[in-house]
Amino acid sequence: xxxxxxxxSIGVRIGAKALLxxxxxxxxxxxxxxxVGPNGAGKSTLLRVLSGxxxxxxxxxxxxxxxxxxxxxxxLALNRAVLSQNISVAFPFTVADVVRMGAGDGRGAKxxxxxxxxxxxxxxxxxxxxxxxxxxxxxQQRAHFARVLVQLACGEADNGPGLLLLDEPTASLDLRHQLxxxxxxxxxxxxxxxxVAILHDLNLATxxxxxxxxxxxxxxxxxxxxxxTITDAMLEQVFRVGNRNRARAARGHAxxxxxxxxxxxxxxxxxxx
Amino acid sequence: xxxxxxxxxxxxxxxxxxAIRSPVIVLGVLLAALVVxxxxxxxxxxxxxxxxxLAAAFGLASGDPDLIARDRLVLWSIRLPRIALACMxxxxxxxxxxxxxxxxxxxxxxxxxxxxxxxAGLAAAVTIVLGDRLLAGxxxxxxxxxxxxFIGALAVTTMLxxxxxxxxxxxxxxxxxxxxxxxxxxxxAIGLLVFLADDRQLxxxxxxxxxxxxxxxxxxxxxxxxxxxALLIAIPLxxxxxxxLVLGEAEAFHMGVEVERLKRLSIVLVSATVxxxxxxxxxxxxxxxxxxxxxxMVIGPGHRLLxxxxxxxxxxxxxxxxxxxxxxxxPAELPIGILTAAVGAxxxxxxxxxxxxxxxx
Lengths: 273, 361
Hints:
The complex is a heterodimer.
Chain A: E1 5-14, E2 17-27, E3 32-36, H1 43-51, E4 58-63, E5 66-67, H2 73-79, E6 80-83, H3 95-101, H4 109-121, H5 137-159, E7 163-167, H6 175-190, E8 194-198, H7 202-208, E9 211-216, E10 219-224, H8 226-229, H9 232-239, H10 242-250, H11 262-272
Parallel strand pairs in A: 3-8, 3-9, 6-7, 7-8
Antiparallel strand pairs in A: 1-2, 1-4, 4-5, 9-10
Helix pairs in contact in A: 3-5, 4-5, 9-10
Chain B: H1 4-21, H2 23-43, H3 51-57, H4 65-103, H5 116-135, H6 144-164, E1 165-166, E2 169-170, H7 172-196, H8 199-210, H9 218-245, H10 249-254, H11 259-281, H12 287-299, H13 303-328, H14 336-355
Antiparallel strand pairs in B: 1-2
Helix pairs in contact in B: 2-13, 3-4, 4-9, 4-11, 4-12, 4-13, 5-6, 5-7, 5-8, 5-11, 6-7, 6-11, 9-11, 9-13, 12-13
């Protein structure tokens, strides 16, 4: 099976400053990748490159075996969906209006059902007629996630499972809805959707992803299973939190996921759920 | 109370909602209202034509042949061209406001408020003064003015967009302030032209500053018809894109919109509609902000319905305003720009007060 998305030595520079430098990785269908790294590591830039929003100054991206740059926006929208952070809606659209935007020009009972299903998925059943600008940040974020789910579902009909890009999807969500989002994303990957998500919470990253890509200063410094990437060495080198961490570990805390065994993880999952 | 009552109320609400979102019903009601206002407007004026004689003049009833002949003359050479022109200008200005607000994702955008109309007016004034000098005496063909005004409006709109939009965000504060600065610059340039102009040019230029529909002719209506037709053709092409643009340029792109093309098309359309309107009737403010705002409160913000509804409601509003302008100070005529500003400016302040918490400057 070919990769859904393949980035080959991506470089992005603005003036003399390199935001990304030689980043390469490949994601097979149905995989969930967490993109982690400190502030300013280039995570958002990488996500914008993968979404087609900015063209890299070096390297190339292929989506489903075809150069990303060769996609028209309409076709691209049928093959990948993006959930950004802090989307502000300028006019008083209802939640249902916004979610339906994911379906493009689509109308009719089938789309209505899709919208209802997506609203249920994000725990906003019955909120369709509320004006989105009156909702809290987290509720708006969930509505936008529902919109992205509708977009994915629409593209899937003709183009097969797509690519889902998430920028800090859990940032404004409470614990319950963070876990709901993870569960909803999992249901997507079970259908074959591929997910790349920027995450800050490393604990969540281990719950969420089967693979972690670590960025630091625009370079890829780690790529593999959470257990192999989120290590003491990485935390110290990339996040500069090694010493305090070890001190806390000495006091008996399980401070980062690499220290968790399978039993701890499943206990944590049960506790959350 | 049984459980059925809330269910019924909810069903009624939902039926109402479907009705106010249905293009056929909304546009039907608006068009019917436009016809009623047009009939009233054609009866009113220096030479009153009561409804009965109006019907006779259109051959729908019988009457005194002499009166019919006189009424026909008044209707066809004075009143109907004026009504047509008021409707078209109103339609153009309202659509320009709606498109601009969608493009800038800002409910406070109005071509008159942020200097686009002034830019169009300046270009028209330059054309009058320079055209006069260059053509040395031969009267400037009026047909040139809409295109000159279009160029002026295009320059201002493009400049505004460049200044106010950076990295996917349009700043409301920078947009409004830049608009004020550009408007002031255009006003200064118009002032300079007034200073340089001779008496006849001065009269022509003054007319832009006030905004008036007097001297309406079929010829003027014919000149702006292509602009209105182009607008009507373009509405379906940009409506969906403007809806998605509400979430931001990046999000619109993520959902499949060719954002650059949409922006270019919208900027050209705003400029063309404002240019055409300003060339014929001068600077008439606030139609572009009042119409979309009122409509959004009733039919919602979706551009697929909002844009065509703005066209019709703009026509209704400006025709009503023009009719008042004709009768308030009869037999003299109030420049309509004064009237729309007198009503529109307080309305604008009311919007500001309501949205004070929402509009982050």
